[in-house]
Structures are given as C-alpha cells and as structure tokens.
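Notebook entry, structure prediction.
Reason for the run: the old model in the group folder had no record of what sequence produced it. Starting over properly, with the input documented here first.
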Amino acid sequence: MKLRLILIVLIVTLNPVLLEAQCAMCRAVLESGENQDIGKSVNNGIQYLMIFPYLLIGGLLFIIYRKYRHSS
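New structure, fully documented this time:
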C-alpha cells in the first residue's frame, strides 16, 4: 500500500505535462512584451510564495535543534 502511494506521488509530481501546465500561461503573458511591469509582478509573487516554505522548514529545524541541544 505504501509503495503504491509513493509511486502515485512520484508519477504526479514528475509528470512533465502536469509540471508545464501553468508555465505555458505565464510564459505567454511574459513573452508578449507589451508591459514589462507584469514580469516584475510575477517575479515578486513567486518570491512572496516561496518564502513561506523556507520559513516553515527553518522554524521546524530550529525547534528540533533546540530540543536536541537541551536534551544532551
């Protein structure tokens, strides 16, 4: 059962057709060249969305570090 779940997750996450679904839409908007502010806005949005996973992982690692440091 676990192997089947892992296999399904890998197929879904590594399928190139699914990975490029949203990129084609963004690329069409950004390559139109009409308004360069849109490209800057898309880049800012990407940075905004990517900061939260790093903060969560960093916070989790900090908590784990503190627990192991105090238990020794």
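Summary: DSSP finds four helices and no strands in the chain.
The old model has been moved to the deprecated folder.
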